[in-house]
C-alpha cells in the first residue's frame, strides 16, 4: 500500500513537472508584451485636391472635317482651368447622316489625349444639339445614333483611366434626353442598353432623371448594395441633373403624382419621393449637374440638406451664377472646423467624398495564439463616396527607418458612404516582429491615377502616409 502511494505521488509530481515545462514553453513561445500609443487626429477645413469629385467647367467641341477644334485654344483652356473635373461636350451634328469620319475620330482621340495629359478627370457628353432643336439636328434613324456610340466607344475606352462617366444617351436638347424622336421608352432603353454594351465597364453612365433610371433598369427599386459596382447595366448608371434645386420639381425632373399611382417605370415621383430614391441609388453611382434659378430651394440651408440627401459628387462651377453667389454670401455656422466658412466653399469641399482619420486602436492577447488587430476609424464628411476603387495600405516602420511590413486592407472605400464612419482592420503577426518600437502609417491611393488621396486632417502626411501611432514590442 505504501509503495502504491509513493508511486502515485511520483506520477503526480512528474505530471506536474511536465505541465510546468509545457506551460513554460508556451509562455516563452507566445508571451509578448505590446504597448500602443495612438496619434491624435484633428479635422481640418483645408481644401483637398482629390480626384473624381468637386467642381467642373464645361467645354464644347464640334467634330468636323472642315473646322476642327483648335489645339492652341484647347491648351489655353487647360492652363486656366483650376478644377479636378472637366465636362467635355462633343457635338456630332456634322455626321447626323453618316458614320463618323476617320478625321472626326482622330479629333476625338486627340481631344481626350490632350485633356488626359492635363491630369484632369473627364465627364463626357455626346450630343447633336446646342440650340434647343434636337429633332432638327439629330440623325433620322436610331441605327445611326447606335453606330456613333459604337465608333466613339472605341476611342473613349482607351481612356478609361481618366474618363469618369458619360452623361446621357447622345440625344435630346443639349444632350439632356428631352425633345428627341428617340425618347420613347422603347428607344431610350434600346440606346441605353447599347451604350452599356460598348462602353468599358470601368466607366459610369448617367441618365437625366430618376424616372429615366427606373425605365432603363426596369424596376421601381433603387440599386441594392450587393449589386453595386458590378460594372454593367443599372449598377453603373448614375444621374445628371441640370435643373438641380431650380424649383419644387427641379424644372420637370420630378413630378406631382406619388409613385404608388404610377402606371409604368417612366413615371416621375414627387420631390420627396425622388430625393429618397436618390438617397439610396446614389450611394453607389455618381450624381451631379448644375444648380439653376435663384429660389428658396437653393437657399444655402435648403441646398445643403438636399445635396447631402442626393449624395451629390460634382457641380458646375460656372452656372447658375446667381445661385453660386448666394452661397458665397451665406455662412456655415455649425459647430465644427468649418464654422464661419462661406456656403460656396463649404459645399465645394463636401462634394463627393471627404475622408478623415478619427481614431486608431490596437488589441493583442499575449496568451492567445491569435495575431494582433489594428483598427482604424475613417469618417466621410462628404456628400458621397468615391465611386472608383481605392487601395488602403498600412506600413510598419522599424526604429532604423526601414520598412518592417506593408499590409493592404481588404475594405472597399467605395462603400464608405457620405456622412458615415468606416472601420477597417488588419492583423499584425507580432510574434514575427523583432522587439523594439515601430511607427505605423496609413495611406489611401488611387492606383489607376497613381495618386495618394488627401485626408481631411491637420496632420501632414509623410512618405509612408499618415502617422497612426507607435507600437512597442517586448518579450
Explain what this protein looks like in three dimensions.
The chain folds into two domains: 28-45 and 354-474, Sandwich (Immunoglobulin-like); 54-350, TIM Barrel. It contains eleven helices and 17 strands. Mean pLDDT is 92; it is low at 7-29. A hairpin with an 8-residue loop joins strand 10 (355-363) and strand 11 (372-380). Helix 3 (102-117) crosses helix 5 (142-156), helix 5 packs parallel to helix 6 and helix 8 crosses helix 9. The longest helix has 29 residues, at 2-30. It is an alpha/beta fold and 475 residues long. The protein has an eight-stranded parallel beta barrel with strand order 2-3-4-5-6-7-8-9.
Provide tags for this entry:
single chain, Immunoglobulin-like, TIM Barrel, 11 helices, 17 strands, globular
Amino acid at each position: 500500500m505504501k509503495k502504491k502511494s509513493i508511486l502515485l505521488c511520483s506520477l503526480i509530481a512528474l505530471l506536474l513537472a511536465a505541465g510546468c515545462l509545457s506551460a513554460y514553453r508556451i509562455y516563452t513561445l507566445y508571451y509578448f508584451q505590446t504597448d500602443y500609443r495612438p496619434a491624435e487626429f484633428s479635422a481640418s477645413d483645408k481644401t483637398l485636391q482629390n480626384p473624381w469629385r468637386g467642381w467642373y467647367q464645361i467645354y464644347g467641341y464640334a467634330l468636323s472635317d472642315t473646322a476642327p477644334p483648335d489645339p492652341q485654344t484647347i491648351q489655353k483652356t487647360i492652363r486656366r482651368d483650376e478644377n479636378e473635373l472637366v465636362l467635355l461636350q462633343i457635338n456630332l451634328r456634322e455626321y447626323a447622316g453618316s458614320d463618323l469620319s476617320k478625321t472626326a475620330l482622330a479629333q476625338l482621340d486627340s481631344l481626350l489625349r490632350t485633356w488626359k495629359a492635363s491630369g484632369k478627370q473627364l465627364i463626357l457628353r455626346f450630343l447633336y444639339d446646342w440650340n434647343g432643336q434636337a429633332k432638327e439636328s439629330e440623325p433620322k434613324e436610331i441605327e445611326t445614333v447606335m453606330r456613333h456610340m459604337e465608333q466613339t466607344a472605341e476611342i473613349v475606352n482607351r481612356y478609361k483611366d481618366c474618363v469618369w462617366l458619360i452623361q446621357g444617351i447622345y440625344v435630346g436638347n443639349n444632350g439632356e434626353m428631352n425633345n428627341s424622336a428617340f425618347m420613347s421608352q422603347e428607344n431610350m432603353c434600346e440606346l441605353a442598353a447599347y451604350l452599356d454594351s460598348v462602353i468599358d465597364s470601368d466607366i459610369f453612365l448617367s441618365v437625366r432623371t430618376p424616372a429615366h433610371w427606373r425605365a432603363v433598369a426596369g424596376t421601381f427599386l433603387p440599386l441594392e448594395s450587393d449589386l453595386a459596382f458590378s460594372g454593367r447595366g443599372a449598377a453603373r448608371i448614375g444621374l445628371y441633373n441640370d435643373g438641380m434645386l431650380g424649383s419644387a420639381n427641379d424644372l420637370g425632373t420630378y413630378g406631382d403624382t406619388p409613385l404608388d399611382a404610377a402606371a409604368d417605370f417612366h413615371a416621375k415621383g414627387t420631390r420627396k419621393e425622388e430625393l429618397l430614391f436618390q438617397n439610396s441609388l446614389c450611394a453607389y453611382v455618381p450624381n451631379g449637374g448644375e444648380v439653376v434659378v435663384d429660389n428658396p430651394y437653393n437657399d444655402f440651408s435648403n441646398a445643403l440638406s438636399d445635396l447631402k440627401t442626393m449624395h451629390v459628387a460634382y457641380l458646375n462651377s460656372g452656372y447658375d451664377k446667381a445661385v453660386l453667389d448666394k452661397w458665397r454670401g451665406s455662412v456655415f455656422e455649425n459647430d465644427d472646423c468649418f464654422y464661419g466658412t462661406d456656403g460656396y466653399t463649404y459645399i465645394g469641399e463636401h462634394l463627393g467624398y471627404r475622408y478623415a482619420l478619427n481614431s486608431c486602436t490596437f488589441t493583442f492577447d499575449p496568451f492567445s495564439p491569435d495575431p494582433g488587430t489594428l483598427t482604424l476609424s475613417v469618417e466621410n464628411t462628404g456628400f458621397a463616396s468615391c465611386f472608383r476603387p481605392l487601395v488602403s495600405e498600412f506600413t510598419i516602420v522599424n526604429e532604423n527607418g526601414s520598412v518592417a511590413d506593408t499590409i493592404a486592407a481588404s475594405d472597399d472605400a467605395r462603400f464608405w458612404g457620405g456622412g458615415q464612419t468606416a472601420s477597417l482592420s488588419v492583423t499584425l503577426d507580432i510574434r514575427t516582429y523583432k522587439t523594439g518600437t515601430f511607427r505605423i502609417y496609413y495611406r489611401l491611393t488611387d492606383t489607376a491615377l497613381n495618386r495618394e488621396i488627401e485626408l481631411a486632417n491637420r496632420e501632414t502626411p509623410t512618405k509612408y502616409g499618415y502617422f497612426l501611432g507607435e507600437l512597442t514590442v517586448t518579450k
